[in-house]
Amino acid sequence: MTSLVLIFQIFIAISLGYFIAPHLSQKIKQLVFKILPYFSYLLLISVAFELTQALNHIQNPATILPPALLIAFTTSIGSFFICLMTYKLIDRQSIQGKISFHLFLNALKNIAKAFLALAVGIVLGTIVSVSNVDISFNSWYLLLIFIFLIGIELAFTQFDRSWLSWKILLVPVAAFIGSCLASFINYFVLSNDYHLNEVMALAQGYGWYSMSGIVFTELHSAKLGGIALLTDLFREVFAILLMYCLGWRFPRSAISSAGATSMDVTLAMVKQSCGTHYVPHAMMSGLILSLLAPLLISLFLNLKF
User: Fold this and answer.
1) Contact 199, 187 (CB under 8 A)
2) Tens of pLDDT along 76-120?
3) Contact between residue 71 and residue 203 where contact means Cβ atoms under 8 Å apart
4) CA triplet 71, 75, 76: central angle to 5 degrees?
5) What pLDDT is attached to residue 200?
6) Rounded to an integer, what distance in angstroms lies between the CA atom of residue 56 and that of residue 261?
7) Pair 270, 255: CB distance under 8 Å
8) Is residue 302 pLDDT above 80, yes or no?
9) Residue of higher predicted confidence among 67 and 213
10) What's the pTM?
11) Apex CA 293: angle with CA 291 and CA 296, to 5°?
């Protein structure tokens, strides 16, 4: 399946959800909003299940953990500091929010649920492999359903022209630049095993683990799909820690490090730690990076350098 076909399918799924949403009944809308937060866990189980079966054909699958941790940490920190340096030059003001330990615990619970879903998928995949049962399964179609539901949610999001101000748009730009700069550093460490375009592509998931693992598996290999999955899962963890520890003082930088997750998982922390004033920053940054992530991954994987 070519990258162009993948991108076209994602575009059709999100557009279909967006344009169908106004015609749905109230009960169906409520159902979509209710299941959407849990659908990502179902998707993560399916991704882990599929990758576990595929990784059985890879030598030393444990080798995917170190590069995943390295890329996740450096891209999160890189996005944070690029955004910090940019805004330090143009806007020194910061609105201080409240720090809530209860909110932090809730965030950790969400991370734990994600790892639990990952573990369930791995266990199921291992059981099937040991049992020598032939089950053909493709997580891509579940991802398209998930993106369709996101399209429905976007249709009911109230956007404002002020959300397109340059101060807001610099947040996702900083995330992109920080991730790319981190990739060049990572390449010097990983150059013996991975090409530069692969390392660059792995940095473009922005925490959207349920998407990146599938796209890398479809376009490249199960090994890189596993690295992408863990990279973005750990990137979400680092983003939540940065949001809790530094979001109250450097709100835009913390949002930038959160990547695509600032639109959903870390949005509650933005409201609490950074202040309601920064919700538009989080929504627009998360939306832009979510739309760009599959495009950028596909672009870098098709480049040869």
Assistant:
1) yes
2) 999 999 998 887 776 655 445 555 677 677 777 777 888 888 889
3) yes
4) 120
5) 95
6) 30
7) yes
8) yes
9) 67
10) 0.79
11) 115
Among the residue ranges 2-11, 118-127, 271-280, the one predicted with the least confidence is 2-11
DSSP the chain: --HHHHHHHHHHHHHHHHHHGGGS-HHHHHHHHHHHHHHHHHHHHHHHHHHHHHHTTSS-GGGGHHHHHHHHHHHHHHHHHHHHHHHHHH----------HHHHHHHHHHHHHHHHHHHHHHHHHHHHHHTT------THHHHHHHHHHHHHHHHT----GGGGSHHHHHHHHHHHHHHHHHHHHHHHHHTTTS-HHHHHHHTTSTT-HHHHHHHHHHHT-HHHHHHHHHHHHHHHHHHHHHHHHHTTTSHHHHHHHHGGGGGTTTHHHIIIII-GGGHHHHHHHHHHHHHHHHHHHHHHHHS--
Instruction: Identify residue 196 by its one-letter amino acid code.
Output: L
Window from 28-32, 166-170, 196-200, 288-292 with minimum mean pLDDT: 166-170
> How far apart (Å, rounded) are the C-alpha atoms in residues 189 and 203?
14
